[in-house]
Amino acid sequence: MDHDVNGRLLDRPAIEPPESFVAQANVSDPDVRAAFEREWPDCWAQAGRLLDWERPYDETLAGGAAEPPFEWFAGGRLNASHNCVDRHVDERKNQVAVQWEGRLGETRTYTYLDLYREVNEFAAALRSLGVAAGDVVTLYMPMIPELPVAMLACARLGAVHNVVFAGFSAEALANRMGRAESRFLVTCDGYYRRGAATNQKNKADNARIGLDHEVEATVVVSRLGDETHLGDRQYGYVDLLAAHEGDRVDPVARRAADPLFLIYTSGTTGAPKAVTHTTGGYLAHVAWTARAVLDIKPEDTYWCSADIGWITGHSYVVYGPLALGTTTVLYEGTADHPERDRVWQIIERNAVDVFYTAPTAIRAFMKWGSEYPARNDLSSLRLLGTVGEPINPRVWEWYYTHIGGERCPVVDTWWQTETGAIMVSTLPGADAMKPGSAGMALPGIGARVVDGDGRPTPPGEPGYLVLDRPWPGMPTALATGEGWADSHPWRSADGWQYVAGDEATVDEDGYVTVLGRVDDVINVAGRRFSTMELESSIVEVAGVAEAAVIGGDDRSTGRAVYAYVSPERDCPGDDDLRARIEARVREAIGPMATPEAVVFTPELPKTRSGKIMRRLLEDIANDEPLGDTSALRNPEILGEIESVVREEP
Ligand code: 6R9
């Protein structure tokens, strides 16, 4: 089969969603985009209506659409904890809200009533420790139910949570607490990683030492069950709950534009940046997309496998599904522990209806083989989703066939920490799917691909992906126009637009194909290669598990392709594998793209969500000092890679 430059299959027709899916879909009206256009921005009242407002808003969007400031749902007041918990208790108090699957095979079930009680008791505890509306509370916890409970308890008080990925170092935690001047911390004693216990409390204690300001209170959840020494101003989570048993806290009504949380970006292109999301606009956008794109119904069991420390976990493990009153699965473990069919067992055991994951996970599933999903019953699945990176058409097809049984639509959802919620995707009940292409801008969303002068590029021509209209889930810095002036300009061409930093193409039907971060495109002697295209060809070589390519300095061509390859467990990284990789790239892409160097490494440096940190690999290749490494899940691998590169002749 032929592929275009983006690796998309040319002779494969678009795939229509199955009729059985369309018949039950939350959104199936093919006219929905046009209807949103006709009523923009008031069309977003559809999202506002999914929420309970303590005080109704006066205007869907105040301030006009031309330039900041933008204020969504102006005049409205609401509380996110009320929206995600209280209002469901009357209707379905005994329905499961959070289904937890622990690393050691344990499970815990929280009904909406259980969640209501614990959120209230913990909110009362936080209040007694001095937490008030507007305070920043840092949450440094793995995937345990106490994390969403703590998020919702903060939201109940109008406090702003600052979740820091549990795998980050003490230094990364100190940096993120310091910048936010956060005086409250909720953490745990430790947790299991691949069967071994890590000491989280120790990291938290070290972070506190590195801070310039005092921490007023630290709450420690017992995950390992061992006796933990609690120092001054440190409190045990269960002791606090016991002290506040039966307490209720009235949800604090917040203005729609008030901050709900802050989170740091993935840092794939530079130092991680703080992003603040709003209470009303964010929650409305997340709820609407969870309903229209992920097709969530209250009676579903829904599983997004993302870590809560990533924006995807905030929006689609916690806020979106709970706002819609569904059952959300929370999984603490990894996909291959203790066995490579762990994910499929969880889907079978819980009869999961909708599964949302990342291409990096799907690539791993594909490598492990289809026998693992095949030996589990996946017939409960109705819809599949992916997020985080471009998904290669071959990987898409595998997901569609082996996991979805060709019966579940696949939504390839493009968005960012900065956008808060999904921006570009097919609507699974209304749109045809094109493997490898995310799809059209969602109804009411202005996404375009433009050249360096801001002019729309012709179909198929790469350009910059920009958002040229405000959206409800936009972060505070963009809404007020007071932040990010340098790194994220709203640049004026024929209006304001937010430059997302991704390179993309758009086709005749308006389907957007994301090629990768602008910085990740490699220019060799005037020819542009997308990292995805190159990496896909390398991963096709037998024995290769994963690959990352970057542009390194080269004396003759200016820029050259450097490949970092992690071989499969039983395959040696030797000259034979190197020769096969070079041959494959020459054949698939062309001699110009043949890697200047192939470096073997047991792992690639990755973020909490599995994104490859190419900029650090580039620093190593070019013998430059390493940039910010604080957002790495596995920083220890860098030293190993550096030593291999230095040994190269
Ligand atoms: C949600 C999230 C954002 C960057 C984004 C883009 C890449 C995300 C994608 C995708 C192609 C998709 N990205 N979804 N690329 N297709 N469906 O990932 O947020 O961690 O901030 O990353 O991820 O490059 O700009 P974040």
Distance between the termini: 39 Å
User: In order across it, which strands form the biggest sheet?
Assistant: 5-4-17-16-18-19-20
Q: Helicity level, as a percent range? A: 25-40%
- The proportion of strand residues reads 15-25%
Number of strands: 29
What value does the average pLDDT take?
Answer: 91
Radius of gyration equals 24 Å
Q: List cofactors, ions and other ligands.
A: ligand 6R9
Poorly predicted spans: 5-10
Shape: globular
Task: Look at the helices and sheets and give the structural class.
Answer: alpha/beta
Tally of individual helices: 20
Largest sheet: 7 strands, mixed
Structural features, described:
The chain is α/β, with parallel strands linked by helices. The strands form eight sheets. A seven-stranded mixed β-sheet has the order 5-4-17-16-18-19-20, with helices on both faces. β27 (544-554) and β28 (558-567) form a beta hairpin. α5 crosses α6 (146-157), α7 (170-179) packs across α8 and α13 (359-368) packs across α15. The longest helix is centred in the N-terminal third of the chain and has 17 residues, at 112-128. The protein is globular. The two termini are 39 Å apart. The model is unreliable at 5-10 (pLDDT under 50). The structure holds ligand 6R9. The site of ligand 6R9 has 21 residues, from α11, β20, β23 and β24.
Sum up the structure in keywords.
649 residues, alpha/beta, 7-stranded mixed β-sheet, 30% helix, binds ligand 6R9, ligase
